Every structure is written in structure tokens, then in C-alpha cells.
Task: structure prediction
Amino acid sequence: MSATRPPCADLRIVDFSQVLAGPYTARLLAEMGADVIKVEAPAGDLSRKIAPKRDRGQSGLYTWANLGKRNVCIDLTRPEGRAVALDLVRASDAVLENFRPGVADRLGIGWRDVQAANPRAVMVSVSGYGSDSSRREHGAFAPTMHAATGLIEYQARKSSGPVGSEHATPETPAGNPRMVNLPDARADLTTALHAAVGLLAALRLAERTGVGQHLDLAMFDAVLASYPETPFELLDPPEVREEPPPYDAGPHGFVAVAGPPQHVWAVIAKAFELADPAPPEADIPTKARLRQVAIERWMAAQASRATLIEQLTAAKIPCAPVVSLREALTDPFARERELLRDVDDRRGGTRPVVRLPYRFSASRIGPARAAPRRGEHNGEVLRDVLGYDAGRIDALAAAHVLQAE
Result:
């Protein structure tokens, strides 16, 4: 079947957001064909600076979150800038923003302004705790959201449990879990995926009714709605779902096997005829420890890591070797999956970016253009989308309403 137009080729989205949750939402839609116009402030998107010094400006993080978009740089604090922004809203199907609650209203691009300018438009507002909540003024980045939603505490409790007095330190006193933040922006990306689903659902309804609506999406809600441990935590009393740590396979590294320890032992012992090393009268912790040692000795005795994984897979035991993130990104399987795509780094070279996971049977998707420079498409967008003439565009630039790198 020949490839058809991308699924979102008939959509135009104005993206007022910055950093991750909003921009990544818009990248998803841009790669699926939407015309995403990123409206960037003169100060620049903060994600340009969240990088090692050598990579600031057109950073890897900015590139990753903004592929496929066009960029206009507008000073929204100026009345003329707000007028341009609302003209873009009139020419678009959806609006995306992640200012703190109330900021978009003060800038003249809040929901009432959007609805008045374009009654068919959908607007998605992403914030930490919701625009109508008691925490509406609280800023939200992934590390603080991981704390507020309980993810940090739950991870500490699940991975290591309370630190006993024999391990107590000033940083982790006796009885307290060892707290470490999640090494990723999980809260941002979870929220981005929900924002994309919500935006598309609202557009679907707007197509049927001719009337847009406002989606108020709180990161707090999105994270907890997507966390699969909540059913166990809501039991009375709460129960931490047990999972075995990766097994130490000696020269073959570590290997993860899915399932609770007693189930893993039963399946592996049966498949490979391992004798139970635990005396019948031993308590449960002793049995678990001895059986883990037996599994690890069997794993270490295999000829190679590949052989070990093949044997476990043939026995229908879900498993995977523990590899580094870089290995996962660059090993032969990643190349088989065509995981990385080289994109223009806007510095005279290219940089690899992980492509989106969607593989449609009859649509080809991907970034239509590189991640844009600040204000790169000022003239193009205002001329082609809004119909401004050259004189008007030049006047806005001369007054610094429009800016560019």
C-alpha cells in the first residue's frame, strides 16, 4: 500500500509552551503532520540552556522536543505582539500552553481570548497542579513533581526499604528510606502523552460540534493516573509489589527476569532441572536467598550472555540483559529497529535523535524540518499563514515585536 498523508496533516497548532511537557506534545503532532508554529519568547526556551555548556543554544534537549516545528519569536508583553498571537490563533485549530495558571490570561492569550478569537479552537493548558487548585501558584518541574506525587518515596521504599540503624547516616537516619530522585523527566513526558491524547479528543469533538473547548491538564493528576503501582498502594494495608532485582550472572553481567521471586524460581528450576538448595524447614527469606544463589550460579555457568538469553527465551521465561542506555540506543537491535535518525543540528552538522515509535501501515511520519532557531520563520509564517505584507512584517521587526537569533 502506498503511503498516504500523515494523520494530522490537516491541523495547525500554535505552541506557546516551553521546556518539555508542552513542547514534546507538539513535537508528536508535528511529526504526525500537523503544522506546529512554536511561539518563542525573546528570552528563549529554557530547554536551550538545560545542557552542558558546549551544547547550549540549539541544545540536544531543545532539538529533541521541537523537531518539525516552525518558529516565530514574539514579545507577548507588547500589545502588537498579542495581536499577532491572536491572529495565529484565528488561523489555527488548537493552542497549547504551559505557563503558570493566570499568566496566559495576563498576556492576553488565555482561554477567553482564544475562544473569542476562534470559537472552533481547542486549547490545552498544562500546569503542575491545575488552574483551580490550592497549589495553582506552585511551579512544577519533573524533580518536584516526582516528590509531590510520591514517586520518590515509593521508589525508595520499593528498591531498598527502610535504612536500619546499622546503616544510618546523617543523610539517611535510621528508619528512613534512602531518597534519590528519578533520573529522568518522567512527569513531563507522561503529561505530554496525556496532553496529546486530550488535544486530539477535543479536536474530534470540535469537528462534530463546531465549538472548541479548554482542557486543563495538571501534571499531578497525569502522573498519578498513569502510575501502575497505585492499586497496590490503595490496599488496606498498602502493599509494595515485590519484584526480584536483576540476577548477577557473573561474567555475563546482570539479567532481569519478570515475575515475583517464588514464581521465577519455580519456572527456572523446572525448565533447567535445578535442585532446590533450601531445606524444607528454612524460613522464607532463607529460601529466597539460597534459591537466588542457585539461579545466579546456573546463569554464570552458561557459555555466553547470548546463550543464556537464548535458553531463557526458549523456556518462555521473559528476560533481558541489563545494558547501558547508550548500548540500548546504538547496539545492533537498535540499528535493526532504525531507532536513531540523524537530524540537522543547525550548526553545520547532524545529531542523532530517537525517532517516534509510531509505525502506521499506510502513513509515513517524521519531522518535516529541523528544530527551528528562535524567530527563524517570522516572515514565512506571518506572510503565508496570516497574509501580512512585507511592510507590516518589517515594521514589527523594527519595533522589536518580532525578534530572531
User: Anything to note?
Assistant: The longest strand covers residues 35-40. The chain has 17 helices and twelve strands. The CA atoms of residues 199 and 317 lie 39 Å apart.
